[in-house]
Amino acid sequence: MNETVVINKWVISSHLISADSQKLIVSNMVLNKKQGISLDINAEKSLWRNLQEAFPDELKNPIRPSAVMTFMKCRKIAMANLNSPDTLLDAIAESDISEILFTGSFKEGSLFYRFYASLLGQPITRTIQQQRGVLLDATFFGHPVWLTVLYSGSGNANVGIARSQKFQAIRHQLDDDRPVHDYRIRSYREKFELPY
């Protein structure tokens, strides 16, 4: 069954991001000026499933709109799509955003590619791919901003995680039965911890 979460305008307003937002998720969501944004849980199932596992006390199954709104408000998280890029770039510059998180991959056409390579005109290097992101200096938005690609739950992502140096360095600390899964959920927990 498709469950749609509607997030009110306090998350996405006419300028997309509130001034006190600290993190921004760029996602494939539908923006509706009258209703705020509509997120199809199935379309972004990897993101929400990983967040639900990382924060099970707050995002219970099935995920409810009120829980999502509380979760995002507490963590000062905003969401946006790339449909109005100029407005988005202005909103980031006028906010406290310190990290932009992308769902998907680094491939051409991905959200990260469209933002970093197409919109900002920057090359995606092997180092950026290996580190899962890059730190933009203050020349872009007036303050430094991390760009991070979140791990998905796909088989390809799992292979990449298992081969990564970061995973290998802490492999001994992870769940013996599902180490890659444990690593991915830990990364979500770390990325979305409360800002204080």
Please characterize this protein's 3D structure.
The chain is an alpha/beta fold and 196 residues long. It has a single domain (4-191), classed as Uracil-DNA Glycosylase, subunit E (3-Layer(aba) Sandwich). The chain is built from nine helices and eight strands. The strands form two sheets. The chain has a five-stranded mixed beta sheet with strand order 5-2-6-8-7. Strands 1-4-3 form a three-stranded antiparallel beta sheet. Helix 1 packs across helix 9 (179-191). Mean pLDDT is 83; it is low at 8-15.
Short note summarizing the structure:
By secondary structure, the protein is of the alpha/beta class.
How much strand? 15-25%
Largest sheet: 5 strands, mixed
Q: Return Rg in Å.
A: 16 Å
Number of strands: 8
- Overall number of domains: 1
Instruction: Output the CATH class name.
Output: Alpha Beta
Alpha-carbon distance between the two ends:
37 Å
Could you name the key traits of this structure?
196 residues, alpha/beta, Uracil-DNA Glycosylase, subunit E, five-stranded mixed beta sheet, three-stranded antiparallel beta sheet, 9 helices
